[in-house]
Amino acid sequence: MNSNSSLSRFYLIGMLAFATLFGVLAFKSASPKPATFEYRQFSTIESIIPGGLGRSRVVSTDASGTTVEKELLNFYSLVGINFGNISNNDRVIVDKINEYTNEGWELYSVTTGVQSPTDSGKAGIFITRYLFKKAKG
Fold it and tell me: Where exactly are the structural domains of the chain?
């Protein structure tokens, strides 16, 4: 093998290496910006006070910052637990979730809690918070 052939091969390998490096650097995308989100939440408060004496609600804030309440039915009537009321509440809550998702919000987390002022279990509330997020854009 003569020196011209070796030199040509060296240049060819060098040019291929340079072209490969240039191609990788030229098409490397910039680091993506981290997504930023806005959040929206609504809460449900469901009473377990017997006899329908409690106040059950869906509480949300509209786009203008106004608090909006929608009535829910209490878990208990005078004769005990009322499964029709629970079914009604489920429909109202799912309708609210569908409203938010139809506006482009994604259900991000659900947090629940129970508050009972006595140990008797005959009074109290269930509260559930539904947090939604949407990419700013």
Answer: 1-32, 37-135
